[in-house]
Amino acid sequence: MFVVAKFTKLKGKNLFYLLSIIFCFGPLLFEFVRANNTLTVCTFTLLFFFFNSRNKIWMREVSYVFLAGAICMKIYPIFIMFYILWRGEKWEKLWGVLKVLAYTLVVVFVPFLFIEGGFSNIPILLSNVTGFSSGGATTWGSNVSFDTIVYYLCLALSTIFGGADMSILHTILSTLLRYGLVVLAFVLPLISFKSKKYKEFVTLAVGTYLLFPGVCNGYCLTVMIIPFIIMLLDWNNMKFWEKIFYTVCYGLIICPIFYTYGFFLTSAIAVAVIVIKSVVDIIRDDVRIFKNRKNQDTSEKIVDMLKQWNERENSVNFKMTNKVKNFFNLKKFFIIESKKFNIIRLN
After folding, report:
1. Using an 8 Å Cβ cutoff, are 138 and 148 in contact?
2. Low-confidence spans in the chain with pLDDT less than 50
3. How far apart are the C-alpha atoms of 300 and 294, rounded to whole Å?
4. Torsion 19-22-28-30 (CA) sign
5. How does 155-185 read in b/e, with b if 16+ C-beta sit within 10 Å?
6. Distance between CA atoms of 313 and 236, rounded to whole angstroms?
7. Structure pTM?
8. H/E element holding 90?
9. For 22-53, how does the pLDDT look when each residue is reduced to its tens digit (9 = 90+)?
10. Which of 74, 102, 238, 286 could, after both became Cys, cross-link 242 (CB 3.0–4.6 A)?
């Protein structure tokens, strides 16, 4: 809660209202029931965004360590590194990602030096990481991922069309949405270095962490606290319909009723809708920046052409002026010479 207060810089009743909402956050309550380490992952991820938003170098380094800690506990926070690709400047993008990976390796493997068996325990670690990455979770109502959303969509279509087999459609749609989201989360930060869509890039990174995995239980939605807080910080800059949109979507994510019955499909759809809107907003902002840059380039070309034309015109005028001066000087010379000739002739 201290981190939230420092991050938002809210005080008084506004901070009280925000903390009250967070304490009633449905995924957070479910997290307390399950006692999963996602709460620690969420805290580390929030600390990453808090320190990474500062301009001091040492704070950036601390943020990378916190993200490395989150990745060590849950592999999927690695998608948060896509945010670094947008936040960083030029080579800092790659350098930041490499440092996070380096810190992650240190945090993962150094503890093996202090436990019995040492590095021979690494296969156990790998089996824990990969042993529960797929399977029957697709059909769980508690699972939040594109895979589960598409499954229930295909189930509804199958019911409408008299029990038709939708397994192929499910495989195609799930693959396209999941890996398409990863591609967008990777590419957009690289090409949007001039975009100021801070809220959207945070939502895209966190949304990829939630929607891509084959298995992502409802308590993982606790990390949506982060884009929720950043959305509130941008509240006064949003249009009225956007405020309604985010209120409804986050209401579906926060509502504790869904977590009482262990069915999170509605919340997963709300996350997907917010992520899709973020992608659309980022692309629209990129198009706007590109058009402005193109118009600016065109304006600069026109200005350069006018300057060249003026310089050329001034140069022509200068040449004409010199010619006129030379003409009058020549005429003056002939007059003087003719006068001299007349004087000499009279003499």
Report:
1. yes
2. 316, 318, 341, 344-347
3. 10
4. positive
5. eeebeeeeeeebeeebeebbeebbeebeebb
6. 52
7. 0.71
8. none
9. 777 777 777 777 777 777 888 888 888 888 87
10. 238
